Amino acid sequence: MSDDADSGAGRLWGGRFEQGPAEAAWQLGVSTEFDRDLWRADLAGSRAHTQELLRIGVLDHDEAESMLEAIDRCAALFAEGRFPFEPTDEDLHGAIERWLVDELGDELGGKLRAGRSRNDQIASDLRLYLREACDRLRQQIGELQQALCAQAATHLDWIAPGYTHLQRGQPVLLSHHLLAYVWMFDRDAGRVVDARNRMDASVLGAGALAGTTLDLDPANYARDLGFGRVAENSMDAVSSRDFAVEFLAAGAILAVHLSRLAEEIVLWSSAEFGFASLADAYSTGSSIMPQKRNPDVAELVRGKAGRVVGDLVALLTVLKGLPLTYDRDLQEDKEPVFDTVRTLELVLPAISGAVGSLTFDRERLEAAAGGGFSLATDLAEELVRRGVPFREAHEVVGRLVRQAEERGGDLDVLDPSEIAAAHRALDRSAADLLDVRDAVERRRASFATASDRVREQLRRAQEAAAANAGH
Ligand code: ARG
Protein backbone atom coordinates (compact mmCIF):
# COMPACT_ATOMS: atom_id res chain seq x y z
CA MET A 1 0.00 0.00 0.00
CA SER A 2 1.90 3.04 -1.15
CA ASP A 3 -1.28 5.00 -1.57
CA ASP A 4 -0.30 8.66 -0.93
CA ALA A 5 -3.60 9.42 0.69
CA ASP A 6 -2.75 6.80 3.29
CA SER A 7 -0.53 8.36 5.91
CA GLY A 8 -0.76 5.26 8.07
CA ALA A 9 -3.47 6.83 10.21
CA GLY A 10 -6.24 4.33 10.75
CA ARG A 11 -3.69 1.59 11.20
CA LEU A 12 -2.84 0.31 14.65
CA TRP A 13 0.31 2.39 14.75
CA GLY A 14 -0.32 5.26 12.35
CA GLY A 15 -0.06 8.15 14.81
CA ARG A 16 3.64 9.03 14.73
CA PHE A 17 4.14 8.49 10.99
CA GLU A 18 3.83 10.99 8.19
CA GLN A 19 4.00 8.41 5.42
CA GLY A 20 2.47 4.99 4.97
CA PRO A 21 4.70 1.99 4.29
CA ALA A 22 6.20 1.34 0.87
CA GLU A 23 4.40 -1.31 -1.13
CA ALA A 24 7.31 -3.75 -0.83
CA ALA A 25 7.56 -3.23 2.92
CA TRP A 26 3.85 -3.70 3.28
CA GLN A 27 3.81 -6.90 1.23
CA LEU A 28 6.62 -8.28 3.35
CA GLY A 29 4.80 -7.65 6.59
CA VAL A 30 1.18 -8.36 5.85
CA SER A 31 0.03 -11.60 7.47
CA THR A 32 -3.74 -11.70 7.09
CA GLU A 33 -3.53 -14.47 4.49
CA PHE A 34 -2.37 -16.92 7.11
CA ASP A 35 -3.00 -15.52 10.58
CA ARG A 36 -6.76 -15.47 9.96
CA ASP A 37 -6.72 -19.11 11.10
CA LEU A 38 -6.34 -17.73 14.62
CA TRP A 39 -9.61 -15.81 14.66
CA ARG A 40 -11.32 -18.05 17.18
CA ALA A 41 -8.48 -17.73 19.67
CA ASP A 42 -8.15 -14.01 19.03
CA LEU A 43 -11.81 -13.33 19.72
CA ALA A 44 -11.75 -15.53 22.83
CA GLY A 45 -8.89 -13.33 24.08
CA SER A 46 -10.89 -10.21 23.28
CA ARG A 47 -13.86 -11.49 25.26
CA ALA A 48 -11.64 -12.14 28.26
CA HIS A 49 -10.04 -8.72 27.84
CA THR A 50 -13.45 -7.03 27.71
CA GLN A 51 -14.29 -8.61 31.06
CA GLU A 52 -11.05 -7.35 32.56
CA LEU A 53 -11.62 -3.84 31.19
CA LEU A 54 -15.08 -3.91 32.75
CA ARG A 55 -13.67 -5.06 36.07
CA ILE A 56 -11.11 -2.25 36.24
CA GLY A 57 -13.64 0.36 35.09
CA VAL A 58 -12.24 1.17 31.63
CA LEU A 59 -15.55 -0.06 30.21
CA ASP A 60 -18.92 0.35 31.91
CA HIS A 61 -21.57 -2.35 31.83
CA ASP A 62 -23.36 -1.17 28.71
CA GLU A 63 -20.08 -0.69 26.89
CA ALA A 64 -18.89 -4.15 27.81
CA GLU A 65 -22.18 -5.61 26.68
CA SER A 66 -22.04 -3.83 23.34
CA MET A 67 -18.44 -4.95 22.95
CA LEU A 68 -19.26 -8.59 23.63
CA GLU A 69 -22.20 -8.48 21.22
CA ALA A 70 -20.01 -6.98 18.53
CA ILE A 71 -17.39 -9.67 19.15
CA ASP A 72 -20.10 -12.32 18.67
CA ARG A 73 -21.16 -10.74 15.38
CA CYS A 74 -17.54 -10.69 14.32
CA ALA A 75 -17.19 -14.39 15.21
CA ALA A 76 -20.26 -15.19 13.12
CA LEU A 77 -18.68 -13.44 10.12
CA PHE A 78 -15.49 -15.49 10.49
CA ALA A 79 -17.42 -18.70 10.99
CA GLU A 80 -19.28 -18.06 7.74
CA GLY A 81 -16.06 -17.10 5.96
CA ARG A 82 -17.47 -13.63 5.36
CA PHE A 83 -15.26 -11.41 7.52
CA PRO A 84 -14.54 -8.34 5.36
CA PHE A 85 -10.75 -8.02 5.35
CA GLU A 86 -9.54 -4.70 3.93
CA PRO A 87 -6.37 -4.28 1.91
CA THR A 88 -5.08 -2.02 4.69
CA ASP A 89 -5.34 -4.76 7.33
CA GLU A 90 -1.82 -5.71 8.32
CA ASP A 91 -2.72 -8.66 10.48
CA LEU A 92 -5.68 -10.38 12.03
CA HIS A 93 -5.53 -8.36 15.25
CA GLY A 94 -5.57 -5.08 13.36
CA ALA A 95 -8.37 -6.25 11.08
CA ILE A 96 -10.59 -7.19 14.00
CA GLU A 97 -9.94 -3.90 15.80
CA ARG A 98 -10.65 -1.94 12.62
CA TRP A 99 -13.91 -3.83 12.22
CA LEU A 100 -14.93 -3.23 15.85
CA VAL A 101 -14.21 0.49 15.54
CA ASP A 102 -16.38 0.62 12.38
CA GLU A 103 -19.08 -1.24 14.22
CA LEU A 104 -18.99 0.50 17.60
CA GLY A 105 -17.58 3.91 16.73
CA ASP A 106 -14.19 5.42 17.59
CA GLU A 107 -15.07 6.09 21.20
CA LEU A 108 -16.01 2.56 22.30
CA GLY A 109 -14.18 0.60 19.58
CA GLY A 110 -10.97 2.38 20.48
CA LYS A 111 -11.05 1.21 24.10
CA LEU A 112 -10.44 -2.49 23.59
CA ARG A 113 -6.73 -2.12 22.99
CA ALA A 114 -6.03 -0.64 26.43
CA GLY A 115 -3.47 -2.70 28.32
CA ARG A 116 -3.01 -5.13 25.48
CA SER A 117 -0.33 -5.49 22.85
CA ARG A 118 -0.28 -7.63 19.77
CA ASN A 119 2.74 -9.22 21.43
CA ASP A 120 0.82 -10.82 24.28
CA GLN A 121 -2.17 -11.25 22.02
CA ILE A 122 -0.39 -13.35 19.41
CA ALA A 123 1.41 -15.42 22.04
CA SER A 124 -1.94 -16.14 23.67
CA ASP A 125 -3.64 -16.91 20.36
CA LEU A 126 -1.03 -19.40 19.28
CA ARG A 127 -1.15 -21.23 22.61
CA LEU A 128 -4.94 -21.47 22.44
CA TYR A 129 -4.87 -22.63 18.84
CA LEU A 130 -2.21 -25.26 19.46
CA ARG A 131 -3.83 -26.54 22.63
CA GLU A 132 -6.89 -27.50 20.60
CA ALA A 133 -4.79 -28.88 17.77
CA CYS A 134 -3.02 -31.12 20.31
CA ASP A 135 -6.36 -32.50 21.48
CA ARG A 136 -7.52 -33.26 17.95
CA LEU A 137 -4.18 -34.79 17.03
CA ARG A 138 -4.12 -37.04 20.05
CA GLN A 139 -7.55 -38.33 19.11
CA GLN A 140 -6.51 -39.02 15.52
CA ILE A 141 -3.40 -40.84 16.72
CA GLY A 142 -5.66 -42.95 18.95
CA GLU A 143 -7.83 -43.81 15.98
CA LEU A 144 -4.81 -44.95 14.00
CA GLN A 145 -3.74 -47.07 16.95
CA GLN A 146 -7.22 -48.59 16.97
CA ALA A 147 -6.98 -49.44 13.27
CA LEU A 148 -3.66 -51.20 13.95
CA CYS A 149 -5.08 -53.03 16.98
CA ALA A 150 -8.06 -54.20 14.93
CA GLN A 151 -5.74 -55.67 12.29
CA ALA A 152 -3.62 -57.26 15.03
CA ALA A 153 -6.72 -58.80 16.59
CA THR A 154 -7.94 -60.20 13.26
CA HIS A 155 -4.54 -61.72 12.47
CA LEU A 156 -3.41 -62.55 15.95
CA ASP A 157 -1.95 -65.99 15.18
CA TRP A 158 -0.67 -65.35 11.69
CA ILE A 159 3.01 -66.03 11.18
CA ALA A 160 5.17 -63.40 9.48
CA PRO A 161 8.87 -62.93 8.82
CA GLY A 162 10.66 -60.57 11.19
CA TYR A 163 13.45 -58.59 9.55
CA THR A 164 16.70 -56.92 10.38
CA HIS A 165 18.59 -55.18 7.56
CA LEU A 166 15.52 -56.07 5.47
CA GLN A 167 16.81 -59.64 5.55
CA ARG A 168 14.65 -62.30 7.16
CA GLY A 169 15.79 -62.78 10.74
CA GLN A 170 13.33 -64.65 12.93
CA PRO A 171 9.66 -65.57 12.58
CA VAL A 172 7.17 -63.46 14.50
CA LEU A 173 3.43 -63.02 14.64
CA LEU A 174 2.06 -60.47 12.19
CA SER A 175 0.14 -59.02 15.14
CA HIS A 176 3.41 -58.48 17.03
CA HIS A 177 4.77 -56.52 14.09
CA LEU A 178 1.62 -54.38 13.81
CA LEU A 179 1.53 -53.69 17.54
CA ALA A 180 5.10 -52.36 17.43
CA TYR A 181 3.63 -49.33 15.65
CA VAL A 182 0.93 -48.91 18.27
CA TRP A 183 3.63 -48.26 20.87
CA MET A 184 5.54 -45.88 18.61
CA PHE A 185 2.36 -43.88 18.11
CA ASP A 186 1.62 -44.08 21.80
CA ARG A 187 4.83 -42.25 22.59
CA ASP A 188 3.93 -39.72 19.88
CA ALA A 189 0.59 -39.11 21.57
CA GLY A 190 2.45 -38.74 24.87
CA ARG A 191 4.72 -36.11 23.36
CA VAL A 192 1.70 -34.21 22.04
CA VAL A 193 0.14 -34.31 25.52
CA ASP A 194 3.42 -33.14 27.10
CA ALA A 195 3.63 -30.25 24.66
CA ARG A 196 0.01 -29.37 25.38
CA ASN A 197 0.62 -29.30 29.12
CA ARG A 198 3.69 -27.15 28.81
CA MET A 199 1.95 -24.59 26.58
CA ASP A 200 -1.02 -24.41 28.94
CA ALA A 201 0.03 -21.10 30.53
CA SER A 202 -1.75 -17.79 30.11
CA VAL A 203 0.16 -14.73 28.86
CA LEU A 204 -2.47 -11.97 28.44
CA GLY A 205 -1.71 -8.99 30.64
CA ALA A 206 1.98 -9.13 29.74
CA GLY A 207 1.26 -6.30 27.28
CA ALA A 208 4.21 -5.43 25.09
CA LEU A 209 6.71 -7.08 27.43
CA ALA A 210 6.73 -5.68 30.98
CA GLY A 211 3.11 -5.94 32.08
CA THR A 212 0.84 -2.88 32.08
CA THR A 213 0.19 0.02 34.44
CA LEU A 214 -3.51 -0.86 34.31
CA ASP A 215 -4.71 -3.18 37.02
CA LEU A 216 -5.29 -6.20 34.75
CA ASP A 217 -5.12 -9.56 36.53
CA PRO A 218 -3.38 -12.36 34.60
CA ALA A 219 -5.20 -14.96 36.70
CA ASN A 220 -8.54 -13.79 35.37
CA TYR A 221 -7.43 -14.25 31.77
CA ALA A 222 -6.15 -17.70 32.64
CA ARG A 223 -9.47 -18.65 34.20
CA ASP A 224 -11.56 -17.20 31.35
CA LEU A 225 -9.50 -18.89 28.65
CA GLY A 226 -9.23 -22.18 30.50
CA PHE A 227 -5.44 -22.07 30.91
CA GLY A 228 -4.00 -24.29 33.63
CA ARG A 229 -1.72 -21.59 34.99
CA VAL A 230 -0.24 -18.12 34.41
CA ALA A 231 3.21 -17.72 32.86
CA GLU A 232 5.89 -16.75 35.39
CA ASN A 233 7.55 -13.90 33.51
CA SER A 234 5.97 -11.34 31.17
CA MET A 235 9.11 -11.08 29.02
CA ASP A 236 9.29 -14.83 28.61
CA ALA A 237 5.54 -14.82 27.95
CA VAL A 238 5.75 -12.61 24.85
CA SER A 239 9.02 -13.86 23.41
CA SER A 240 9.05 -17.63 23.85
CA ARG A 241 7.95 -20.03 21.18
CA ASP A 242 9.50 -23.22 22.53
CA PHE A 243 5.95 -24.44 23.08
CA ALA A 244 5.46 -24.28 19.33
CA VAL A 245 8.85 -25.88 18.67
CA GLU A 246 7.95 -28.68 21.02
CA PHE A 247 4.70 -29.22 19.19
CA LEU A 248 6.52 -29.26 15.84
CA ALA A 249 9.10 -31.69 17.21
CA ALA A 250 6.37 -34.03 18.41
CA GLY A 251 4.73 -33.64 15.00
CA ALA A 252 7.99 -34.33 13.16
CA ILE A 253 8.65 -37.52 15.12
CA LEU A 254 5.08 -38.61 14.48
CA ALA A 255 5.45 -37.85 10.78
CA VAL A 256 8.62 -39.95 10.65
CA HIS A 257 6.86 -42.85 12.34
CA LEU A 258 3.98 -42.51 9.90
CA SER A 259 6.50 -42.55 7.08
CA ARG A 260 8.07 -45.79 8.33
CA LEU A 261 4.67 -47.46 8.50
CA ALA A 262 3.83 -46.13 5.04
CA GLU A 263 7.09 -47.53 3.68
CA GLU A 264 6.22 -50.98 4.99
CA ILE A 265 2.83 -50.78 3.32
CA VAL A 266 4.55 -49.88 0.05
CA LEU A 267 6.87 -52.88 0.41
CA TRP A 268 4.19 -55.32 1.52
CA SER A 269 1.92 -54.43 -1.37
CA SER A 270 4.63 -54.94 -4.02
CA ALA A 271 4.56 -58.12 -6.10
CA GLU A 272 8.01 -58.94 -4.71
CA PHE A 273 6.71 -59.17 -1.14
CA GLY A 274 3.05 -59.85 -1.87
CA PHE A 275 2.19 -59.80 1.82
CA ALA A 276 -0.74 -57.41 1.72
CA SER A 277 -2.91 -55.38 -0.56
CA LEU A 278 -4.75 -52.11 -0.09
CA ALA A 279 -8.45 -51.86 -0.88
CA ASP A 280 -9.44 -50.08 -4.09
CA ALA A 281 -10.46 -47.05 -2.07
CA TYR A 282 -6.85 -46.61 -0.93
CA SER A 283 -5.14 -47.54 -4.21
CA THR A 284 -4.63 -45.63 -7.42
CA GLY A 285 -4.19 -46.58 -11.03
CA SER A 286 -1.70 -45.39 -13.60
CA SER A 287 -2.64 -43.08 -16.46
CA ILE A 288 -0.67 -45.18 -18.92
CA MET A 289 -0.17 -48.67 -17.49
CA PRO A 290 -3.60 -50.31 -17.23
CA GLN A 291 -2.40 -53.09 -14.93
CA LYS A 292 -1.08 -50.79 -12.20
CA ARG A 293 -2.39 -50.67 -8.67
CA ASN A 294 -0.30 -48.16 -6.82
CA PRO A 295 -0.02 -47.38 -3.10
CA ASP A 296 -0.09 -43.58 -3.60
CA VAL A 297 -1.70 -42.99 -0.24
CA ALA A 298 1.18 -44.64 1.58
CA GLU A 299 3.71 -42.86 -0.65
CA LEU A 300 2.15 -39.48 0.05
CA VAL A 301 2.18 -40.16 3.78
CA ARG A 302 5.87 -41.01 3.44
CA GLY A 303 6.48 -37.90 1.34
CA LYS A 304 4.65 -35.52 3.68
CA ALA A 305 7.16 -36.27 6.42
CA GLY A 306 9.61 -34.03 4.58
CA ARG A 307 7.61 -30.86 4.96
CA VAL A 308 6.77 -31.55 8.61
CA VAL A 309 10.44 -32.01 9.47
CA GLY A 310 11.07 -28.83 7.48
CA ASP A 311 8.54 -26.92 9.58
CA LEU A 312 10.41 -27.84 12.75
CA VAL A 313 13.75 -26.80 11.32
CA ALA A 314 12.24 -23.55 10.01
CA LEU A 315 10.99 -22.43 13.40
CA LEU A 316 14.13 -23.45 15.27
CA THR A 317 16.11 -21.40 12.78
CA VAL A 318 13.83 -18.38 13.22
CA LEU A 319 14.30 -18.42 16.99
CA LYS A 320 18.03 -18.89 16.99
CA GLY A 321 19.69 -15.58 17.78
CA LEU A 322 16.57 -13.56 18.66
CA PRO A 323 17.14 -11.12 21.50
CA LEU A 324 14.34 -10.69 24.06
CA THR A 325 11.57 -9.92 23.81
CA TYR A 326 9.25 -9.80 20.81
CA ASP A 327 10.91 -9.52 17.41
CA ARG A 328 8.97 -9.39 14.19
CA ASP A 329 10.77 -12.54 13.06
CA LEU A 330 8.31 -14.28 15.37
CA GLN A 331 5.59 -13.69 12.81
CA GLU A 332 7.30 -16.53 10.94
CA ASP A 333 6.15 -18.97 13.62
CA LYS A 334 2.68 -19.31 12.18
CA GLU A 335 3.03 -20.87 8.75
CA PRO A 336 5.16 -23.82 9.91
CA VAL A 337 2.75 -24.47 12.76
CA PHE A 338 -0.33 -24.29 10.54
CA ASP A 339 1.32 -26.42 7.90
CA THR A 340 2.19 -29.16 10.37
CA VAL A 341 -1.31 -29.15 11.87
CA ARG A 342 -2.94 -29.25 8.44
CA THR A 343 -0.60 -31.91 7.10
CA LEU A 344 -0.97 -34.25 10.06
CA GLU A 345 -4.73 -33.82 10.04
CA LEU A 346 -4.74 -34.85 6.37
CA VAL A 347 -2.34 -37.73 6.80
CA LEU A 348 -3.69 -39.43 9.92
CA PRO A 349 -7.21 -40.29 8.70
CA ALA A 350 -5.79 -41.43 5.34
CA ILE A 351 -3.25 -43.80 6.84
CA SER A 352 -5.79 -45.07 9.39
CA GLY A 353 -8.16 -45.91 6.55
CA ALA A 354 -5.37 -47.50 4.52
CA VAL A 355 -4.30 -49.67 7.46
CA GLY A 356 -7.90 -50.71 8.06
CA SER A 357 -8.26 -51.65 4.39
CA LEU A 358 -5.22 -53.97 4.24
CA THR A 359 -5.85 -57.61 3.46
CA PHE A 360 -2.96 -59.95 4.21
CA ASP A 361 -1.84 -63.10 2.38
CA ARG A 362 -1.44 -65.82 4.97
CA GLU A 363 0.41 -68.32 2.75
CA ARG A 364 2.98 -65.86 1.48
CA LEU A 365 3.67 -64.49 4.95
CA GLU A 366 4.12 -67.94 6.42
CA ALA A 367 6.29 -69.17 3.55
CA ALA A 368 8.52 -66.13 3.87
CA ALA A 369 8.73 -66.60 7.63
CA GLY A 370 10.08 -70.13 7.22
CA GLY A 371 12.67 -69.21 4.62
CA GLY A 372 15.93 -67.35 4.95
CA PHE A 373 17.28 -69.74 7.60
CA SER A 374 15.08 -67.95 10.10
CA LEU A 375 15.34 -70.84 12.59
CA ALA A 376 19.14 -70.85 12.77
CA THR A 377 19.12 -68.90 16.05
CA ASP A 378 16.75 -71.44 17.57
CA LEU A 379 19.14 -74.26 16.79
CA ALA A 380 22.10 -72.31 18.21
CA GLU A 381 20.19 -71.53 21.40
CA GLU A 382 19.30 -75.22 21.75
CA LEU A 383 23.03 -75.96 21.77
CA VAL A 384 23.43 -73.34 24.50
CA ARG A 385 20.73 -75.08 26.53
CA ARG A 386 22.79 -78.27 26.10
CA GLY A 387 25.86 -76.59 27.60
CA VAL A 388 27.71 -75.44 24.47
CA PRO A 389 29.25 -71.92 24.54
CA PHE A 390 27.33 -69.62 22.18
CA ARG A 391 30.39 -68.77 20.07
CA GLU A 392 30.84 -72.43 19.30
CA ALA A 393 27.11 -72.97 18.73
CA HIS A 394 27.08 -70.07 16.26
CA GLU A 395 29.90 -71.73 14.31
CA VAL A 396 28.24 -75.14 14.27
CA VAL A 397 24.92 -73.82 13.01
CA GLY A 398 26.71 -71.58 10.52
CA ARG A 399 28.24 -74.72 9.00
CA LEU A 400 24.82 -76.40 8.82
CA VAL A 401 23.46 -73.31 7.05
CA ARG A 402 26.25 -73.52 4.49
CA GLN A 403 25.60 -77.24 4.01
CA ALA A 404 21.88 -76.61 3.37
CA GLU A 405 22.63 -73.66 1.14
CA GLU A 406 24.89 -75.82 -1.03
CA ARG A 407 21.95 -78.13 -1.50
CA GLY A 408 19.81 -75.15 -2.51
CA GLY A 409 17.43 -75.26 0.45
CA ASP A 410 16.79 -74.17 4.03
CA LEU A 411 17.81 -76.06 7.19
CA ASP A 412 14.91 -78.46 6.72
CA VAL A 413 16.55 -80.04 3.63
CA LEU A 414 19.04 -81.60 6.05
CA ASP A 415 18.33 -85.06 7.36
CA PRO A 416 17.94 -85.28 11.17
CA SER A 417 21.03 -87.49 11.16
CA GLU A 418 23.08 -84.76 9.49
CA ILE A 419 22.01 -82.28 12.14
CA ALA A 420 22.86 -84.76 14.87
CA ALA A 421 26.30 -85.25 13.30
CA ALA A 422 27.14 -81.55 13.45
CA HIS A 423 28.02 -81.58 17.18
CA ARG A 424 28.30 -84.15 19.96
CA ALA A 425 25.66 -82.26 21.98
CA LEU A 426 23.12 -82.67 19.16
CA ASP A 427 20.91 -85.64 18.33
CA ARG A 428 18.16 -86.35 15.81
CA SER A 429 15.53 -84.67 18.01
CA ALA A 430 17.16 -81.30 17.31
CA ALA A 431 15.53 -81.42 13.86
CA ASP A 432 12.15 -81.11 15.60
CA LEU A 433 13.07 -77.52 16.46
CA LEU A 434 12.74 -76.54 12.83
CA ASP A 435 9.11 -75.47 13.00
CA VAL A 436 8.18 -71.82 12.59
CA ARG A 437 5.12 -71.87 14.80
CA ASP A 438 7.04 -73.54 17.64
CA ALA A 439 9.81 -71.00 17.16
CA VAL A 440 7.29 -68.19 17.71
CA GLU A 441 5.76 -69.87 20.75
CA ARG A 442 9.16 -70.48 22.35
CA ARG A 443 9.66 -66.73 22.76
CA ARG A 444 7.76 -66.26 25.95
CA ALA A 445 9.08 -63.10 27.64
CA SER A 446 6.44 -60.47 28.43
CA PHE A 447 7.25 -58.40 25.34
CA ALA A 448 8.09 -61.27 22.99
CA THR A 449 6.15 -62.83 20.15
CA ALA A 450 4.56 -65.96 21.71
CA SER A 451 0.83 -65.82 21.02
CA ASP A 452 -0.25 -65.62 24.70
CA ARG A 453 2.10 -62.74 25.22
CA VAL A 454 0.90 -60.93 22.13
CA ARG A 455 -2.70 -61.45 23.25
CA GLU A 456 -1.83 -59.72 26.56
CA GLN A 457 0.05 -57.02 24.71
CA LEU A 458 -2.95 -56.46 22.45
CA ARG A 459 -5.15 -55.81 25.47
CA ARG A 460 -2.73 -53.18 26.77
CA ALA A 461 -2.45 -51.67 23.29
CA GLN A 462 -6.23 -51.43 22.96
CA GLU A 463 -6.42 -49.61 26.28
CA ALA A 464 -3.70 -47.18 25.26
CA ALA A 465 -5.45 -46.56 21.94
CA ALA A 466 -8.82 -45.95 23.59
CA ALA A 467 -7.26 -43.51 26.07
CA ASN A 468 -5.96 -41.44 23.16
CA ALA A 469 -8.99 -41.79 20.89
CA GLY A 470 -11.37 -40.94 23.71
CA HIS A 471 -13.61 -43.88 22.81
N1 ARG B 1 1.43 -10.18 13.27
C1 ARG B 1 2.32 -10.19 14.38
C2 ARG B 1 2.85 -11.60 14.62
O1 ARG B 1 2.26 -12.49 14.12
C3 ARG B 1 1.61 -9.74 15.59
C4 ARG B 1 2.48 -9.08 16.56
C5 ARG B 1 3.00 -7.81 15.99
N2 ARG B 1 3.65 -7.06 17.03
C6 ARG B 1 4.40 -6.03 16.73
N3 ARG B 1 4.96 -5.44 17.71
N4 ARG B 1 4.64 -5.69 15.50
O2 ARG B 1 3.83 -11.82 15.28
Beta-strand percent range: under 5%
What is the string of SSEs from the N terminus onward?
HHHHHHEEHEHEHHEHHEHHHHHH
* Distinct small molecules: arginine
- What is the structural class? mainly alpha
Strand order of the largest sheet: 1-2
- What is the helix content? 55-70%
C-alpha Rg, in Å? 31 Å
Largest sheet: 2 strands, antiparallel
Indicate the mean pLDDT.
Answer: 95
* CA-based shape: elongated
Q: How many strands?
A: 6
- Cα(first) to Cα(last) distance is 51 Å
Number of helices: 18
Query: Unreliable stretches, pLDDT < 50, 5 or more residues?
Result: 1-7
Task: Please describe the topology of this protein.
Layout: H1 23-29, H2 32-35, H3 39-55, H4 61-79, H5 92-109, H6 118-154, E1 159-164, E2 167-173, H7 174-198, E3 201-202, H8 218-225, E4 229-230, H9 234-239, H10 242-268, E5 276-277, H11 296-319, H12 334-357, E6 359-360, H13 362-370, H14 376-385, H15 390-406, H16 416-421, H17 436-441, H18 451-469
Parallel strand pairs: 3-4
Antiparallel strand pairs: 1-2, 5-6
Helix pairs in contact: 3-4, 3-6, 3-8, 4-5, 6-7, 6-12, 6-18, 7-10, 7-18, 10-11, 10-12, 11-12, 14-15
The structure holds arginine.
The site of arginine has 10 residues, from helix 6.
